Amino acid sequence: MKGVLISINFIFCCFLLFLDSSTSLPLCVDSSAPFILNSTLEFCPYNGSTCCNSTEDTQIQKQFQLMNISDTTCASALKSILCARCDPYSAELFTVQSTPRSVPLLCNSTIASNSSQSKAVAVEDFCSQVWESCQSVSIKNSPFSPSLQGQAGRTPSKSNPSKLTDQWQSKTDFCTAFGGSSTSESVCFEGEPVALKNTDSEAPISPPHGLCLEKIGNGSYLNMVAHPDGTNRAFFSNQKGQVWLATIPADGSGGKLQLDESSPFVDLTDMVYSDAKLGMMGMAFHPKFAENGRFFASFTCDKDKWSGCNGICSCNSNVNCDPSKIGTGSSGAQPCQYQAVVAEYTANGTASQPSSAVSAKPTEVRRIFTMGLPSNTENGGQILFGPNDGYLYFMMGDGSGTGDPYNFAQNKKSLLGKIMRLDIDNIPSAAEISKQGLWGSYSIPKDNPFSQDNGSQAEIWALGLKTPWRCSFDSERPSYFFCGDAGQGLGYYGVLQVSNPNFYVLLMRAPRKRAFKKAQDLYEEVDLITKGGNYGWRVYEGPYPFTPNESPGGNTSKDSINPIMPILGYNHSEVNKNEGSACIIGGYMYRSNTDPCMYGRYLYADLYSVAVWEATEDPVNSGNFSKSRIPFSCSHDSPIKCDPVPGTSLPALGYIYSFGEDNNKDVYILASEGVYRVVRPSRCSYTCSQEKATTEAPSPSTSPSHACRNFSIYQFLQISFFLLLLICFV
């Protein structure tokens, strides 16, 4: 008996030695083992191994909503912090030196070299980021109360302190209480789900074998914007000027997009002039929408049909352009009859608080921008708020038809062919607007590159673009600002609504011979936008020198500019050797956990919907990208059946108009045939080793010399209990 006990003790001790005490193991706050979900949680961005079921996910969402956070940056940080309870390593995150915590241990320094955590997410000092974004923001039922942390904190000046500055003396005190660093023996929370690195070497990320889609809606839309409240809702708009608020189903739930076409959030069709090439091209919601209810629409109007369409013509003597010499357009319209408008609206007054509003009045609050367009082509029109600076970015095409004959894109006195950056929070007086020669109610950010240049329009952030069509900021690296820029030739002309309101017909330019095959009508590009950058049009079309057929506005010499070449692109012949391509559709840097093999890759497409590309940067932060055309298909269990293109295995998307991104960073394709979401690759029988790892093993380490790390604490306790039973029965 004694010999058996000694043997068992020896085996048990050997097992303990196999377990590396310096390695973090997955365990939930309640000491249970993480479990595998069949679908992604609706609110918290966790799939695969997690510590939350759908009920707990809903409870966290309600807790978040009760905080009533007005600032979107702070709200995003708080959402990730609350959702950390779903992390497979939440027990370690919420317990430091055996003391339970109200929030996870926030990383307060760059991940140490001896840390067990992965460096895939380069977040530095997340604790400071939380302080900077939330210090002056009211947070009801704040989890950062000193009493919850068992510390004295600051003597509150108010009876119900809700701001960090009311509760803590300084960032140093705050991060002393809530911050910490990742070491070889512990992990900290950096704003993303915890990921451990392979102890022997970082396993290379497998390239994606295909893009799996599910169809969740039949409607056709040009714009999708995630609701600023961080929930699973999003706004969709069409070219006519209607905006809908929709609820997005959870991934894998089999649900469809919940959107009532008969009840739009707001209807702006009375102001919007829409035809094959014009209409509502963009919408944006103020970063503090939950507090102020402000949202914005970018559209074209017809001054012959609406008295509010009264801007200054962009073709004028300041830019060496005479409207009388342009002539009428293809529709018979006069120069500057159609005008680009950015207008402000409000959701206030329709609900107790803006974030809960399900409708808004179509009454314009403020005219931000109005400018007459020389023609009805190449106008762009997307608007975005910068994630770091809160300024409004306005993408404007050269607006002048084939070859930009007036050279607007290179002329810094013109706003055509530019990306503008506007401050819509500090509105000058009418007298000051007139004095500065502004195009509406906005002010110029002091750090705009040409704000002190009297010979340039101060609104300009970047120039030399033809038709920026779908730009986006990388949610993980906001300094990366991507823009697809449509080339000359078979470019995007827009969509035309016909009798069926859910169906659009694309108008293309008529096929024609290319007289300058080597010099023009060749290239579609993706640009990485930087402050003051010149992207070359019309001196260059992508990497190719461009020669216009006519140039009444003069030319810009190659030697006089320092153009920034595209980071990505494709020749028209790459898509269809007979007809070429239509135009590029810029997309997103994929940051969702749904398809781990697509993570960190930029997605973009061609309007013809027969080609989708993914691109990777190597090395990271180098600006050097390589692309590959990626196959795509529709999942067999798609909530709405996808019809195939006759004679092919491709799903019949129709035409791809745009991409979208929700609050979980899942990416969507907006096409003429409906709304499609990128889903797990296995649903289309595509292989992805990272997806397999997340569904089969909670711990990502697979080193043979550390195989015991694939054990969870729960498995360890099971084995320990089994050994104790042996001792008792021997």
Automatic annotation (TrEMBL):
Residues 1-24 form the signal peptide. SUPFAM superfamilies: Soluble quinoprotein glucose dehydrogenase. Residues 143-166 are annotated as: Disordered. Residues 226-471 form the Glucose/Sorbosone dehydrogenase domain. Keywords: Signal. It holds the Pfam family GSDH. The keyword Metal-binding does not apply. The keyword Signal applies. PANTHER family: HEDGEHOG-INTERACTING PROTEIN, HIPL1 PROTEIN. This is Glucose/Sorbosone dehydrogenase domain-containing protein. It comes from Arachis hypogaea (Peanut).
